[in-house]
Amino acid sequence: MSAPTDSTDRSRPLLELRHVSTDIALRKGTVHALADINLEVQAGQVLGVVGESGSGKTMTALSVMGLLPAGGSVVGGEILFDGRDLRSLPPEEVRRIRGVEMGMVFQDPFTSLNPTMRIGAQVAEPLRVHQGVGKAAARDQAIEILRRVGMPRPDKIVDDYPHQLSGGMRQRVVIAMALVCSPRLLIADEPTTALDVTTQRQILDLIDDLRDEFGMALVLVTHDLGVIASRADRVAVMYAGRVVETAATADLFRAPRHRYTEALMQSLPEAADHDTGAKGRLYSIPGLPPDLSRPPTGCRFAPRCRFATAECRTTEVVLSTGDHQHACLHPVTVPAPAPISLRPGPAVVPTPAPALGVREPGERAPKAPAILSIRGLVKNYEAAGGALRRATGQVSAVAGVSFEVHPGETLGLVGESGCGKSTVGRLAVGLEVPTEGQIVLDGTDIATLDRRERRLMRRQVQLMFQDSYAAMNPRMRVDAILAEPLQIQHVGDASARRARVTTLLDQVGLSRRVLERYPHEFSGGQLQRLGLARSLALQPRLIVGDEPVSALDVSIQAQVLNLMRDLQHELGLAYVFISHDLSVVDYMSDRIGVMYLGKLVEVGPAHEVVRSARHPYTQALIDAVPSVDPNAVTRRTDTTIRGELPSALSPPSGCRFRTRCPLATETCATTEPPLTGDVHQVACHFPLRVESAEAARA
Amino acid sequence: MTTSADMTGTPGERAEQPPDADDAPVRGLWRQGVEVFCEDRLALVGVAIFLLLAGVCFLGPLFYHTDQVHTDLAAVFLSPGAPGHPLGTDGVGYDQLGRLMLGGQTSIIVGLAAGVLATAVGTVWGAVAGFVGGWVDAAMMRVVDAMMAIPSLFLFMLMATIVTPTVPMLILIIGAFAWLGPARLVRGEALTLRAREYIQAMRSMGGTGGRAVRRHIVPNAIGTVIVNATFQVADAILYVAYLSFLGLGVPPPAANWGGMLADGLADTYSGHWWLLYPPGIAIILIVLACNFIGGGLRDAFEVRLRRR
Amino acid sequence: MVRYLTMRLGQALIVVVLVTVITFVILHVLPGGAARATLGKDATLDQLAAFNHDMGYDQSLVRQYFLYVGRLLHGDLGYSYQLNQSVTEAIGQRLPKTMLLSLLSTLLAVVVAIPLGVIQAVRRNRWPDYTITSLSLLAYATPIFFLGLMMIILFSQVWPILPAEAPQGFTLGEVLSDPAGLILPTITLAIVTIAVYSRYVRSSMIDNLNENYVRTARSKGMPEWRVVLVHTLRNGLFPVITLLGMYLPALFSGALVVESLFNFPGMGRLFWQSALKRDFPILLGVTLIISVATVLGTLVADLLYAAVDPRVRLRGRAS
């Protein structure tokens, strides 16, 4: 056995990866997914593995678990679990270790449970198979572990099937399943990425609690620096199949050394200067990660690095030694000047936001007439079913929402899935017809227009999709895609349209050579640029962006956000920016509207809503967002909301949030609170920070 | 209008690298599809078999002259290799090789024409049902369900007892009932495509339903339809064979492979194997070829949309 | 579930009604009309007129249709003057035998195709998969009567162990008393079915093996046999249940050919012989009965699927 016998159990890491390399064989060529990975996890420790898509973080987890996808194999190095190399142990033993000593939680709770097996059977299965526990005893243990992961009525849930549970509940089941044999190591691969932020908070807290309770080590794989900062003891940053930096969490966030880590942190919307209200540009890493079927020589980040020299491109850089290790020839010099280096220094923001875009908050709003004014908007969907398609009920997607958007401003709409924010966006662009209420575009109620006029009116408002690939006909070339809105609206002749298309490409920073290409040839960030270009084609005054950066990595997200802001300043565009991500909305918006279950519960200037929220739901949302500041106390305030989103088929009476609100009283159940206030409006009987709000008014 | 020259911000940052496929040559979707198809060896084998069989059947008679109208009772059941009859003769003295060519013409023509007819009718029916939706869709699909509930061979035979099964009639009969499958397929495709985000994007720009059909739905559904057509051709060839076996095929002196095979069955016990195996193998080959081509086409239509 | 049940029953009823409309229409487009088709070409004009009057064929079309349906509901499918027997009786004698043949070959096909499909999925793109795939494609491309003939040549001529003709018994019991004669027809009909089913099981299993829940099962350290047989197989086989229903029309078409080839005294052979004799009352009666059997079979398969798959069974019943 290759295990080092000289080290004692105490100092020996529970999990150690030595020079691990993993390849994925594809039909054409091989992707070298991991190259020379070295990692250690001590017993009871939390190691955060962070990186963007394609960095190899998930492949690392799957390599340890021996769950690589078809064609994947660990081609070199050692994976030592408690000193024993998993690669040289007999398969039976590896299987036992995987089942008993290790546990794994996956990203997507909606697909990671067997849909036709009862919850109890799935949770108890490892006990039955690995420990030979009898049927009844295994069931009791399954109920017990389900109780410990916070499942309500676990004795009933064991007999349910996965589709009867919500996403958050399913993820609890997956966690229970991973923990049922009391493993010593839990690997969680993006355990909360598919969940809403308040559910994410619940799940992360649960994992924290269970880790203490079970005394197990945790490898937390995520793209989210915030999640890592608040939960990990140590962090490993991965890029293009390599570990580029590893350090204690506080050290890493206080003083990142590798230029990639530094750039990544500067790309975060939170890194933008908040206090002035005039938020600066984000640093965005140019270009794309390398193609790992042909990995570049030297530092893999060099082609995108501002500080790269010729040496970087030729020298293979290995991790330095010590507690804070990095693989960079030109590391950030220590000590960092600021205690938290998230705020970009002058060198990072080369140009401040252009002067014409800088507006003091509150200064401009009421002056120009609104470009979009929504009044009492209601949208109900029929929940149809039955042989005769009788309506069996109504889903109340949007329930009386009113707001205005003024020229040149950005209104952010934030809320969790199912809150109706996307429906509002689709109503605004005319993709859906409202059940009730008015949509007034540029002073004209669009319900009063005939078909032709309405089509012309569409030019004013355009939609930008979350997934531009899905929103583009895969069989059309870029030139046809970008010219389509012009054709539909009969703008110009063929040559004028061609000219317009090239102008659009210039505006979004894409080469004119892409005209003959098809959507599948582009990366995610490029597709969002194309999507933006298409929505700009008709020179609209308002663009509704429905989660326009949610599918992108942080560094690519920064590119697109910068572009959107630049174009806003150049063209005087207004945006309705819809997102579940509060920090992105905060960065982009002048004003923010918070939605819950079809209602607008709070709306006001961005900095006020985020920094002095008045609705308990808004506050809960803010508290749930993991902070990248490792020193920030993860508060479990009384605004932490519990429970599940009620069904929109039968929304709660009165205030719709009352079923989850820590402050709710009987009044909340009987009377619906109206949206009140002047600039900063809130719909709550018991708003927070009443004193400060009154003080401000006085 | 602004141009790239007066853009604010740092041009270096905004101008992202073009797609890294940029060094790859620009290729049209057709080119890519053809390349994928050509990589599929089975599909190429299918094309080769199909072309070979069709070539022999349609061009062969130009070089290999036989009398397929007048019987020659002096030369019945000649074994293969008999002078002038490399594949022998049948029970009424027709040259077997020449007859195979003639029969192949019928089989291939009926197969192709019935397959295309079925696909065309089915596509229109399914497309209308899928686009119009609502009770029209429900009514149209119940009709399809009802006709599908009648096993097709029973329907074909019923029809063949009512009308005389000449070649055009066979095409009409098979085409008139084989469209149900394509109709269901196209309806499903229309329903999926109608819900695609690019259709919504187009509608949000003010585009009409007609444009959605012309520019977006038809180009995206055409692949599925073409692939299905190849399978329809294969099925039609088999149906002709079944009808012939059941005694309701084209009457002599016309011939088709199925009928020859059915006739050959009667001769099995007398050892006239050359009357049985050649048409049998010919049918298997042409049906296999159609299925191979269909499979290759399916990959070609799918793969060229695969994202990197 | 209850809603699904009523909806599915309603659909089946509509389809059956439409099938009667189709047979009714065919009856009327027959050369010389229904009377000529029933009585044959030797009937006199007076006989035709009398028949038309008796059957109500001199009334309005709508009324004729309701009379037609009314007779159907009383089990009156017409009378075959060629067999000198009522259609109901003629079919009644043969239907059980066709059902027996179909059932046996479906059972055989399911029993063989599931393991084949599973092996293909587990060993995909390796030699077992390629071999079975090639054989399936070959079976699918072979006319079923040619296949049957090959079986006859192989097993009753070259290696004479099985009779080439099906049992000729009049009742189901008599047919069953000669099981050896059932083997070749059953296998012949099953081979094509196996080809179709195994392709389907293969792709369904491959889809499921790529699902995340399979990875979860592996992460729990489950042995591979358990991953395949306990976790994946159940999910992979659910859609096969619906396929059993969807495949019925093709199965009955195949039975028509097989019965004719092996001289099996079922409904298919009856249909074939009647087609050659242009005995239209029998032809239409068989068509109607076989279609109703198809609708019922499909309905049973769908309901079975709904009953076993918890996602359908418990739809809309959240905890």
Automatic annotation (TrEMBL), chain A:
The keyword Transport applies. InterPro entries: AAA+_ATPase, ABC_Ni/Peptide_Import, ABC_transporter-like_ATP-bd, ABC_transporter-like_CS, Oligopep_ABC_C, P-loop_NTPase. This is ABC transporter ATP-binding protein. GO terms for molecular function: ATP binding; ATP hydrolysis activity. It is found in: Cell membrane. PANTHER family: DIPEPTIDE TRANSPORT ATP-BINDING PROTEIN DPPD, OLIGOPEPTIDE TRANSPORT ATP-BINDING PROTEIN APPD. PROSITE patterns: ABC_TRANSPORTER_1, ABC_TRANSPORTER_2. GO terms for biological process: peptide transport. Belongs to the ABC transporter superfamily. One of its GO terms (cellular component) is plasma membrane. It comes from Solihabitans fulvus. Residues 15-265, 372-622 form the ABC transporter domain.
Automatic annotation (TrEMBL), chain C:
The keyword Ribonucleoprotein does not apply. Keywords: Cell membrane, Membrane, Transmembrane, Transmembrane helix, Transport. CDD domains: TM_PBP2. It is found in: Cell membrane. This is ABC transporter permease. One of its GO terms (biological process) is transmembrane transport. One of its GO terms (cellular component) is plasma membrane. It is a multi-pass membrane protein. PROSITE patterns: ABC_TM1. The chain crosses the membrane at residues 12-30, 99-122, 134-159, 179-197, 236-262, 282-308. PANTHER family: DIPEPTIDE TRANSPORT SYSTEM PERMEASE PROTEIN DPPB-RELATED. SUPFAM superfamilies: MetI-like. It holds the Pfam family BPD_transp_1_N.
